[in-house]
Amino acid sequence: MEQRQTIVVIGAGIVGMSTAIWLQRAGQNVIIVERGEPGHDKGTSYGNGGTIVPSGVVPVTGPGMIAKAPKMLLDPNFPLFLRWGYLPKLLPWLMKYLSNANENDTRRIAKGLEIIVGDAVEQHKALAKGTTAEGWITDSDYCFAYPDRAAFEADAFIWELRRDAGQVPALIEGDAVRDYEPSMGASVNLLAVMKNHAFVRAPGRYVAALAEVFRAEGGEIRRAEVRDVDLTKGRISAVITDQGRIDCDAAVLATGVWSKPLAQKLGVTVPLESERGYHIVFKDPSMTLNATYMMTGGKFVVTPMEAGIRCAGVVEFGGLDAPASRAPLALLRKQVAQYFPTLEYSGTEEWMGHRPAPSDSLPVIGELAGSGVFAGFGHHHIGLTGGAKTGRVIADLITKKGSNIDLAAFDPQRFN
Ligand SMILES: Cc1cc2nc3c(=O)[nH]c(=O)nc-3n(C[C@H](O)[C@H](O)[C@H](O)COP(=O)(O)OP(=O)(O)OC[C@H]3O[C@@H](n4cnc5c(N)ncnc54)[C@H](O)[C@@H]3O)c2cc1C
Question: What pTM, to 2 d.p., does this model score?
Fold first, then answer.
């Protein structure tokens, strides 16, 4: 029998929480180190769109993107933004990112993502089963909203990728769209409906509930910032925090977009950027929703949450330090008003956060250079969806439980 190890999980976002819970359930002694409260509003797991999307296999980079990108950036009505002063810093990553914008790489990335997102609903339910976290997960359809059939057909390649992943939509067209969703405005005339999806009614509270589950099952959460790791003969022996040292047998780097420096210290360079994203919550909304929506024209999701209707999406490049920009939020508001013209509300909450984006749009999962530190970060747009499974996979790797999942696509060393 494997010995009980002490394992430090760094970061209590969705990936860290899932990893910690599965490790603990496998009989390990687990300590989470998190610099904020689990589910805090600076973490990406707080502000996302809340959708659990098994059909989420399509990366942002796709064939033709290089030719279209300049026009997209200059069009104030397109949901792609760049803080131009950040461009020189962004450039090396951007070149790598755009090198994937072709058919072969897009197919390869979709195959990789399918492994992590394909059974996401079951994975979240297994993680939360029988606990207080379970109540935050709601089964739902997930609908891609299009202006018309021509726009849907223009996405034929994307739909081929989803079909290859076993995700086949049911189409609703014309006035039937309003029968399905009465509050949907007249500019949407086709819904591609994906069954057996789900959403989380308050992502931050879901993560906080998972933290309570972890504590209740005997786990310890320490509030501290991890600064470094101590290696003995190349393997981790301690995690160094601003509150002191924690001896351990293994560690997990689940620090989202902030993971690059610690991975680098272990000799693994990951081209990781922030894909900044935004949300607006419309409080006390005058409408209810029968499903969650991806508004394909605006590139944002619409989710009925505990606090109101949350519209979340948009991509902005501008790094980790710059404050939120006004233009993405203004565009999001304008597009919400167009798509849902009857929506009234008592107030709004705005948020900006950082999708952890490796240049090849695939998460980083696996041991970092034989150090006993395991990576679980880089889930860009699909981190809530894929976070539950990633945690389970890492727990299996550390406890050498073995699995038949091929993790080659996520190898942390693939960029070296
Ligand atoms: C606008 C927007 C909408 C989105 N919508 C969706 C969606 O609908 N569905 C979906 O699947 N995904 C969505 N995503 C993506 C998803 O939110 C992320 O991929 C996911 O939350 C990443 O989780 P994580 O656990 O890796 O990182 P995080 O949630 O960021 O957690 C990392 C944690 O590590 C901690 N940390 C960092 N450094 C240290 C340190 N040195 N010491 C101690 N603690 C540290 C941080 O405080 C943080 O709590 C969206 C993202 C955005 C921005």
Answer: 0.97
